[in-house]
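Try it yourself: sequence plus adenosine monophosphate, in.
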Amino acid sequence: MTDDRHPFADLGLDEALVAAVERAGYREPTEIQREAIPAALTGRDVLGMAQTGTGKTAAFTLPMVQRLTQTTQSKSPRGLVVTPTRELAQQIGSAVLTYGSASSVESVVIHGGTPLGPEREELAFGCDVLVATPGRLLDHLKRGNADLSNVEVLILDEADRMLDMGFIDDVKEIVASTPSSRQTLLFSATMPNGVRWLAHELMTDPAEVQIGFETAAEGIRQVLHPVDWSRKHELLYHLLGEWAEGQVLVFTRTRDTATYLADFLRGRDVSVAGLHGGKHQEQRDKALRRFREGAVRVLVATNVAARGLDIRGIRHVVNFDIPEDPRDYVHRVGRTARGDDTGDAVTLMASSDWVEIRAIERLLGGSIERRVVPGFEPDVDPPPPEEETGEVRPASALRRGIRRRG
Ligand code: AMP
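Structure, out:
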């Protein structure tokens, strides 16, 4: 049973929602939840700077659900969450289900890559919360399938990513279809000028909440393995054998590498699935489902496909290729050590990656430990780290990295 002294009740959440977070097994709110929930419950706009892995989904979903239980129902959505990728949309949909079911808050999730017809029917049936990717939502809006005139709470999730992916005009058009009296919550991992500008355009005197990686980063051990480029796939296979157990998420830069690597590992009897934007939605869902269920041990994915994935139990994240944007390093390693778990983030470093590794280390504010795996010594020794400060303390480094970019 809950009482007023429950930490989530202290944030102003009502009994049904406190019970829902208890059922989810959360004992304490995360930093972003402590800051964002009370602010959002007052009805204020909120500008939240937080990564996936910090508990941000609950930070915006819980106050939205609470508000919707207090206002009059309508057929068209009163809560709208816009998020860049299909996978994130599905995850947020599950969160609304978890937190909203006790309060009878119904949601619909729409995203590209699936037929329009069933979504149109769901929209026609009505819902309290609509979770959508921008392109697909705009499509339904233009066809007259969606009505946003009753939106009371608008949430823009991963705003920086939506800008990066070229969704800015879509987002603006969507927002213009919602009432100006709405409450707006905007979350972004980083605050480039484009996001600041968007926030300024769309929000009124927002409460600003800035959080770094927090719990997600605490248990992450990071290491770089220098290796010749041509032997990276063999090294990965070797490491999979060393690790013996636990699920592994491997990032590649391109779809071709993801396909090649998955084929290579499969050929060596590794249980593996691939996830990238070139695959059909059905194949992507299946790969993800099998990985979530533990039916496959290794998921080889490109950046875009895997961004924001929330999968419990990932022991190792491997950067088979260095991410193009140093900020993506932080996103990727955040896929392990979720909640209270610990995990390893392993980066395979070829000589062509040295410059990019330095950019990542500069962002982190320190150097990552280098460790050559016996039998995989590179032909050319990598240069020593720029700052001989010893191993980076992951959590503080990530937090500093995030803050610096503000
Ligand atoms: P998110 O940043 O929203 O992707 O959440 C990351 C993970 O943290 C999800 O698996 C959530 O279920 C979990 N989570 C969210 N809030 C809490 C909390 N207060 N305590 C423990 N885990 C949490």
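One thing you can check immediately is this: The domain at 7-211 is CATH 3.40.50.300 (Rossmann fold).
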